[in-house]
Amino acid sequence: xxxxxxxxxxxxxxxxxxxxxxxxxxxxxxxxxxxxxxxxxxxxxxxxxxxxxxxxxxxxxxxxxxxxxxxxxxxxxxxxxxxxxxxxxxxxxxxxxxxxxxxxxxxxxxxxxxxxxxxxxxxxxxxxxxxxxxxxxxxxxxxxxxxxxxxxxxxxxxxxxxxxxxxxxxxxxxxxxxxxxxxxxxxxxxxxxxxxxxxxxxxxxxxxxxxxxxxxxxxxxxxxxxxxxxxxxxxxxxxxxxxxxxxxxxxxxxxxxxxxxxxxxxxxxxxxxxxxxxxxxxxxxxxxxxxxxxxxxxxxxxxxxxxxxxxxxxxxxxxxxxxxxxxxxxxxxxxxxxxxxxxxxxxxxxxxxxxxxxxxxxxxxxxxxxxxxxxxxxxxxxxxxxxxxxxxxxxxxxxxxxxxxxx
Length: 407
Fold this sequence. Notes:
The chain is an alpha/beta fold. Helices cover 44% and strands 14% of the residues. α1 crosses α15 and α4 crosses α6.
């Protein structure tokens, strides 16, 4: 059996989808070593992994994208954070490899420095991506704007014009410093941002068609395995079992991005409705909210326990919670604020599994209307749930990894 070292960025939204894959590999007899954010080390050890924290300087390098005025600037700021972390990740992963002597590496797609080290390592490795991969395709719109799929010649012309505007700007500003790191490791420069996703021998894409836009030109290293659902504690709280109204779950980002107004708008919009609103707000100050009688605000609660009884999930467009809801057949009202959330929200809308309301148009009245519209789309959400189940999840991901281990 293999010694497998997993290395993640400091984001629970990346660690948690990876966790069920590691658990499945462990169940098959492989020994799991993990390097992740400090606050999750104890929990990973409780699962039986030999876990340690990544360099604390990586976790201290935080996103500032929420301060930007438009989607292109925000995405550029976000990937600049990955570049800043890269220089620290290089010695950090090298040290872990020297300590663990692994047979295989699994690297977070947002850990660019760690990916570069994996390229120089000499043995096989994989990356995992828990958000829509920004890969160009003749069958999908350009990444970043949250555009619907093109229709006809005008749509294809739109894609041709807009594609370079988003990714091209990022490539010009962020690839040079990252390529300098690669050069110091003896690696060839990346010519474009897509190479980040094409370099791994295996890239586990944690979604599935048709929630992801169906494509005829997926790269050969991509394996769509569907979402991998895991919660730190799925025990249903006693107070949850006493709620006798239809439940609406509201989530905000686990990495701060100024999405407090989603909570405020929801509490106002649904205060008089025959619903019970449960809010999880892990990265924002929850003390200042006026909470009506039909609502409860928590820093964290198991989303799975709530979603098992929910009629709708209002999300910030984060891929993890959005797919977790859809995997249970729960329709989503997605309110994207930045990062990949514009893409996720558009996929919710296009797949007819929920509704989309951009954060710039967010009002309590509009949100209320979108929530009730989403609640009518249960059939679409259930179709996506069936597709996710068919994709295989942690079992399919582990099968793909073991095929590489056998080579």
